[in-house]
Design brief:
The structure is a single chain. This protein is α/β, with parallel strands linked by helices. The chain has 3 domains: 62 residues, Winged helix-like DNA-binding domain superfamily/Winged helix DNA-binding domain (Arc Repressor Mutant, subunit A); 142 residues, 3-Layer(aba) Sandwich (Rossmann fold); 132 residues, Rossmann fold. The chain contains 14 helices and 14 strands. It has a 6-stranded parallel sheet with strand order 4-3-5-6-7-13, sandwiched between helices. A 6-stranded mixed sheet has the order 9-8-10-11-12-14, sandwiched between helices. A two-stranded antiparallel ribbon has the order 1-2. Helix 2 packs across helix 3, helix 5 runs parallel beside helix 14 and helix 8 runs parallel beside helix 9. The longest helix has 17 residues. It is globular. About 4% of the residues have low confidence.
């Protein structure tokens, strides 16, 4: 009808209204085009027109390969119409200390020492000192560290491995306060979906695809998975597992897909009966990482199963555990030191140029060992040939 607002205007009004009432804040990630299309009953093209208009008004900002976010002003708060975004000059002028903080989950993590070495080498080459802190994958510990960093205000940037990245995090406001101080934050291995901060990580989807494909190529069709429930990488690796199975025209049995939280992965022996009851029909298992693969193989051998004859296993990370296990197992290599170097280099570029997109997705490749064999033939009555 003449005079009627265009369809995309309702999306523009919705975003502005949520900014005005505080539901959206600077740095928040906007829902995807598909989700907005479903919410408003509009085409993706119409949604894209609306978000494009908001980007031109500097109310939204787009990050390549990451998504669309609520823009921030110089104070690190939500961008309002007519305000200017954080300028390179403003952010660069805040660099005073030549000190970078690095926060990791575990100091004994089997891949972190190599990542740390990569980070340290690049920071040292560029004249930065480094302070390293550990959260033990605990939100309260993360909170204490962030509060200390905010109080001291003696860092130029922060490199973080997130805590339980698949779950809502009450510490997000502290990260926003760091942004308000002009301190760039870069995540590694995983990220918080509530924040616009970039992340340097491996291609988790492809890693799980490769781990599954290796079992499929060996002739397995009854393949299970043991994944982490509280880590965002767990969802991505589940996606890769599903994609490989679907390409093989196989539907995984949900009974054979197990989700463990971090404490459970550290005490898998307490779940032995449960694990093997759920995996009893599987001839192959894709494990979230090498730590889970290592303990699963140990428990399988103690339970009288032969690896790989009765159960083939793959891991992810290619850590030292893959080689020292009683049955050295096939794993997908994690570019540990290279990831550390790339994370440090990207953060330095973010300090020098706040407009730089520090996101990076690193490729992966398999490292074959002795944990995969063809499944034993099954007789007509369903019994397995010895």
């Amino acid at each position: 009808m003449p005079g009627q607002d265009p369809k995309y205007q309702q999306v523009i009004d919705w975003v502005k209204e949520n900014i005005a009432n505080g539901s959206f804040r600077g740095g928040d990630r906007l829902m995807s085009e598909n989700e907005m299309s479903e919410r408003f009953g509009l085409s993706r093209q119409t949604i894209r027109r609306a978000t494009g208009e908001l980007v031109s008004q500097k109310i939204l900002t787009r990050r390549k390969g990451s998504g669309t976010y609520i823009a921030q002003n110089d104070a690190g708060t939500t961008m309002q119409p007519g305000e200017r975004a954080l300028s390179p000059e403003t952010a660069a002028g805040k660099r005073r200390h030549h000190n970078i903080a690095v926060i990791s989950t575990f100091n004994e993590s089997y891949i972190f020492p190599a990542i740390l070495k990569g980070i340290e080498g690049v920071l040292t080459d560029h004249g930065y000192t480094m302070q390293v802190m550990f959260t033990d994958n605990r939100l309260q510990r993360e909170k204490s560290i962030l509060e200390l960093l905010l109080e001291k205000n003696r860092i130029d940037g922060l490199i973080v491995e997130p805590v339980e990245s698949a779950l809502p995090n009450p510490n997000i406001p502290l990260y926003r306060k760091l942004a308000a101080q002009g301190i760039p934050v870069l995540f590694f291995n995983a990220f918080y979906s509530e924040l616009a901060a970039p992340c340097v990580r491996i291609d988790d989807i492809r890693a799980a695809e490769l781990a599954t494909e290796l079992l499929l190529e060996a002739g397995h069709s009854r393949i299970g998975a043991v994944l982490k429930a509280d880590d965002g990488q767990g969802r991505l690796r589940y996606q890769g597992f599903l994609q490989a199975m679907m390409r093989a025209q196989l539907v995984p049995d949900q009974e054979s897909i197990l989700w463990l939280d971090t404490p459970a992965t550290l005490h898998m022996d307490e779940y032995r009966e449960y694990l093997f009851r759920r995996l009893q029909d599987c001839t192959g298992v894709v494990c979230y990482n090498d730590q889970i693969a290592y303990h699963l193989i140990e428990l399988a051998l103690e339970s009288g199963l032969n690896v790989p004859e009765d159960l083939s296993v793959t891991g992810v990370d290619d850590s030292y555990l893959a080689g020292v296990c009683k049955v050295p197992f096939t794993s997908i290599a994690h570019p540990k030191a290279d990831l550390g170097r790339l994370a440090a280099g990207n953060l330095i570029r973010m300090i020098d140029d706040p407009g730089f997109d520090g996101n990076a997705l690193m490729s992966v490749a398999p490292v074959p060992r002795m944990s995969i064999a063809p499944p034993r033939p099954v007789e007509a009555d369903g019994t397995v040939q010895e």
